[in-house]
Amino acid sequence: MATPEKAAAVAELKELFSNSNAAVLTEYRGLTVAKLMELRRSLGENAEYAVVKNTLTAIAAREAGVKGLNLDDLQGPSAVAFITGEPVEAAKNLRDFAKANPQLIIKSGFFGDSPLNAADIEKLADLESREVLLSKVAGAAKGALSKAASLFQAPMSKTVRTAEALRAKVEEQGGESAA
Known about the structure:
58% helix, five-stranded antiparallel beta sheet
């Protein structure tokens, strides 16, 4: 039978999994407490980094219905970044911290119901932020609308230029023929 402490830990992890739209499983062997605090701060408000017990994490993931997490990676000293906000930002922060601190190893994770391996998380970190991507889409849409507007105005402006050229030609000929 589980102890009350373990049951409480499983319940807390289950809630973290349920409230997260993504999570990244890491190994932190060799990182000091100060470095772990630095990592937690770097992740920001939309992610929570928690050192976890492997068996309790596996139980909590199953109970929460998490389908994308590779439970085989729950070996050694593990910690999970539970991401409630923008996964790209958290992935970038984890990648940058791992580059500066090689003791942090990014193992795997999930986004929605999709599993992510370390290479997938690296690709996610290489994406631009949501705001940048949205502004690029808006800029492309504005460019397409401007192009369409100029195409619609082209026949009118061509007609005006033709009429003006005809008027100028008539004036040049001395007004002999009527327009």
